[in-house]
Specification:
The protein has 100 residues and is an all-alpha fold. It folds into 2 domains: 8-69; 73-100, no CATH class. Helices cover 58% and strands 0% of the residues. The chain is elongated, with a radius of gyration of 21 Å. The protein starts with 7 loop residues before the first helix and ends in a 13-residue tail after the last helix.
Length: 100
C-alpha cells in the first residue's frame, strides 16, 4: 500500500484513467473510438475500465465523450435570456444583438 492508502494497482491505474479522460475530452481525438483510446492506455477489459472510470469520474467514458463534444454549455439563465431576446425586437435580422 502507498502512504495515502492507495494500492499499487490504484497508483498505476490513476494516471492511465486521467490520460484517457483528457483524450476523451480532446476534440482532435473524436475520430478515435473509445475502445482504441482505452487500449492505448492498456485498458483491454471494457467492464474493468467502465467500473473504475465510473468510480473515479461518476460517469461512463461515453458520457464524458458526449458531454465534451457539445462544447461548453452556457448557464441556463443566459440561454433563457438569449431565447427571450431572439423573440423580441432587440435582435437584428441576422440574429445579432443591437446595442441600445
Amino acid at each position: 500500500m502507498a502512504a495515502d492508502g492507495q494500492s499499487v494497482r490504484g497508483l498505476i491505474r490513476s494516471p492511465r484513467l486521467q490520460a484517457l479522460h483528457r483524450e476523451l475530452c480532446d476534440p482532435r481525438l473524436s475520430e478515435h473510438s473509445i475502445g482504441a483510446l482505452a487500449v492505448k492506455r492498456c485498458f483491454t477489459d471494457a467492464s474493468y475500465l467502465n467500473h473504475h472510470f465510473h468510480a473515479t469520474y461518476g460517469m461512463a467514458p461515453s458520457d464524458v465523450r458526449r458531454r465534451s463534444s457539445r462544447g461548453p454549455r452556457l448557464p441556463r439563465l443566459i440561454r433563457a435570456n438569449i431565447a427571450e431576446l431572439k423573440s423580441s425586437s432587440q435582435l437584428g435580422q441576422r440574429g445579432s444583438l443591437l446595442l441600445i
